[in-house]
Amino acid sequence: MPGLDALIAGISANNTVVFGRAGMDFFADPPGTPAEEAHVFRTGLGGSSANIAAGLCKFGGKAALVTSVSDDAVGRFCVNELRRYGVDTQYCRPVGGEYRTSLAVYESKIEDFQLVIYRNGAVDFQVTEADVDRVALGDYGALVTAGTVFAAEPSRSATFHAFDKARAIGLPIIFDIDYRPYSWPSPEVASDVLSRAGAAADMIVGNDEEFGFMAGGIARGRQMAEDLAGSSAGIVIYKMGEKGALTYANGQEIHTGVYPVTALKPNGAGDSFMAGLLSGITEGLDLRDAILRGSACAAIVVSRPGCAPSMPDHADLAAFLDAHPGPTAA
């Protein structure tokens, strides 16, 4: 597996291939309106991997998304939105029949927040090994994936196939655990498969609950993060919500705080964290400052409606940092 220097160099190439889903979001308007009482909904691009790709492009990076979308208006909406953000969609394959692009309905409020995701016959699980073989992996500096791709076949085997090909050419693999229980046939299958993916990755990002789930109990999650950093991954980031994050890299333990905000909604933070973190590394920030950039980006997204539409660019980030007193103590 690539060492830490190769991982940083790959990210710094600023040209990323991202595996995972794109979806269409409906969020009730105006903010604060319960979905069941809403008469107006706004639309936006969603899906963890699509959000990460859009966030990277907003910071001036290059990103291509590898996924399948339904061959219908919703699938075309997602592809159009990806292109609008600057994401390369040449590997977004339309699929006909009864497969459908995910649809998420949610609210811009924290109290009694509701998120309803329609994932029956999810088309993004139809990515195949043949789709992977069409991707010119050697053209990219790093591969990023969110854990949802591993929840079902054929995308599970296809993404492990992509991991094998990436490792064969020394392409760094960045893994966002992104555990979504509703996508998996059982917790046991999810724990086994996500652990396999983590063991194959050069950089792993997840929250305390996700690491705990992989380890078989939240009390053992931090130890699992440490073990992965000591055995396979060059960087492991263990997020703890309002308590900040612990990052294990090169034998060091880096503690970072968060940027407190009045949140408008809870979703989208992890995707924005990833985009901010990777773009910070690309721009030459040291790892601590890149993590803090990711935390600032997460704070920005939860304080705005929508997911991809709320991902910050350089101007948004600068305005936020100018107006904010700074992160909490680690």
In short:
Helix content is about 40%, strand content about 20%.
CATH architecture of the domain at 4-21 and 51-66 and 137-323: 3-Layer(aba) Sandwich
Strand proportion, as a percent range, falls in 15-25%
How many beta-strand elements? 13
Q: Element order, helices and strands?
A: HEEEHEHEEEHEHEHEHHEEEHHH
Quick one: CATH superfamily of the domain at 4-21 and 51-66 and 137-323?
Answer: Ribokinase
Oligomer: single chain
> Which percent bin holds the helix content?
25-40%
Q: pLDDT below 50 for ≥5 consecutive residues: which ranges?
A: none
Compute the CA-based radius of gyration: 18 Å
What is the highest CATH level, the class of the domain at 4-21 and 51-66 and 137-323?
Answer: Alpha Beta
CATH topology tier name of the domain at 4-21 and 51-66 and 137-323: UDP-N-acetylmuramoyl-L-alanine:D-glutamate ligase
Structure keywords:
single chain; about 325 residues; alpha/beta; four-stranded mixed beta sheet
Describe the SSE topology.
Blueprint (H helix, E strand, L loop, with lengths): L3 H9 L2 E5 L3 E7 L10 E7 L1 H11 L3 E9 L2 H13 L6 E4 L6 E5 L8 E4 L10 H5 L8 E5 L8 H14 L4 E4 L10 H13 L3 E5 H8 L5 H11 L3 E5 L5 E5 L2 E5 L12 H14 L4 H16 L11 H10 L7
Parallel strand pairs: 1-4, 1-8, 2-6, 4-5, 8-9, 9-10, 10-11
Antiparallel strand pairs: 2-3, 6-7, 11-12, 12-13
Helix pairs in contact: 1-9, 2-9, 7-8, 9-10, 10-11
Describe this structure in words.
With 330 residues, the chain is of the alpha/beta class. The protein has a domain at 4-21 and 51-66 and 137-323: UDP-N-acetylmuramoyl-L-alanine:D-glutamate ligase. 38% of the residues lie in helices and 21% in strands. It has 11 helices and 13 strands. It has helices at 4-12, 48-58, 73-85, 129-133, 155-168, 187-199, 208-215, 221-231, 269-282, 287-302, 314-323; strands at residues 15-19, 23-29, 40-46, 62-70, 92-95, 102-106, 115-118, 142-146, 173-176, 203-207, 235-239, 245-249, 252-256. Helix 3 (73-85) links the parallel strand 4 and strand 5. The protein is globular. It starts with a helix and ends in a 7-residue tail after the last helix.
